[in-house]
Amino acid sequence: xxxxxxxxxxxxxxxxQIGTGGMSTVYLAMNEKANRQWAVKEIRKDRPYxxxxxxxxxxxxxxxxxxxxxxxxxxxCDVIEEEEAIFIVMDYIEGRTLGKVLEEEGAxxxxxxxxxxxxxxQVLAYLHNRIPPVIYRDMKPSNIMLKPNGDLMxxxxxxxxxxxxxxxxDTVCLGTxxxxxxEQFGAGQSDERTDIYGLGATLHYMITGENPRKRYRSEFLxxxxxxxxxxxxxxxxxxxxxxRDPEKRYQSCREVWFALExxxxxxxxxxxxxxxxxxxxxxxxxxxxxxxxxSCFSSIRAVDxxxxxxQFCIQMASNQEGEEKVELLKKAISMNPREEExxxxxxxxxxxxxxxxxEEDISFREILNETNGKKETYEMIIKENQTGYEKLTYxxxxxxxxxxxxxxxxxxxxxxxxxxxxxxxxxxxxxIRAAVCERIGHYWKDMGKRKKTGDFEISHAVYFRDxxxxxxxxxxYKENEIMKLKVCQEIIMQILQYSEEMIKDGVKTExxxxxxxxxxxxxxxAKENVSFDNQEMIEMMEREVEQARQKIKENTAKE
Length: 559
Known about the structure:
By secondary structure, the chain is an alpha+beta fold. It contains 19 helices and eleven strands. The longest helix has 51 residues, at 268-318. The radius of gyration is 31 Å and the shape is elongated. The model is unreliable at 162-173, 277-281 and 284-305 (pLDDT under 50).
């Protein structure tokens, strides 16, 4: 057994033991060179199990985890085999297992259980939606870590498997007694519904405090017999998850998640009340409106299903990163192109690095130009949602104006700000800002153009004062740091290029100096703000302010 204080493989110093199980012991280790903590799982070779099978399982788990990318799934960084043991080095997750929480605290509050259940649905759905699907097969509280912020992590993928539809049953009987579905012990092949059974058993333990492993019979006691105060809706969800026949369970984690989102609507008293109202109304109008009612019901249900799938994709995307997040949001948009949330969240992803790249622009425009079965583009469809479309136009305009290819593209923002400045649903400040940005966009189109007389077509004085107004608005409405600095950067750049024309058009030198001093103060404040990490941009702006000051001095000397 590895000892506390020793160093594994010359780089992982063992700090203390943090967990133990039937097959392994887990330690907290520190890689001192990288100054990072890791969890090290030690699997002893002197235990009564097949070492060859164990090694095969470890390699399979490592290969599987390396292919996954989800914030609720830890990553493996190393596997070290020594004479007496195999060590797996993986992400260290601060917190306790839900198994430990339940042992120490007993049954949990209903709202906690529902929130945790929804998180578990999302990570299981991620696994099940892979090609081929990954079946976890070992859902239980001891395999779920609860982090201090309330988020969960799914650990121990040792008996997970990729689904193969050609198989009729599992080749090896694996799983934890009490949590494992019947098909894991020779009653069929495990699939997505197997994990739903394990989820149901886990939720039953969470809400009742009754450990399924301590039962001597296969049936679960109804939740209401143990905790009568628990919602009937939640009880029904757990009961359906725990059906022995997979066909009678929920058929996907998406269905479970949706039921959890609406668990209060499953309450029998409410359902009975709704049935009485429906019976009364149907008695009055059944003959005349049966066909119409059937048509309407089908239509409403279709809408409900679209909303269900749309919201599930949005929720799934919130736990993803990078390309997988983008693809989930695109999928959500395709399910309901009339709702603005998917577009706005996609735009947020593209702007996470404060850069709306050319590739991201093309990708976003492709979504807007996508067509449905009626050959309507998604942009045409979302226009029907006036409030959502107006909000979207403002955000797209902002993305182009400030962030396109890092420096912004004023001309590309024109179309969107022209709509936003007249939007009924936007705030007054947003409409004013849109109008100012639109004017600046038009100046950019005509910048440098001259009339036949040789004069510039635009008034640089008016342009300067619009830039100044935009800066004052950013300051007044307390915009975020990067937005404020982007406006400051725009003003500096225009002073450097057109200060002479501005002065000729009537802008006072003092006015230009004053705004440069204001901007210098903003730069200083941003530099002092430890949370702001765009130091390269700040340093460049400091140099540009000094260059602008020098240019104003030179212009004044000429006068």
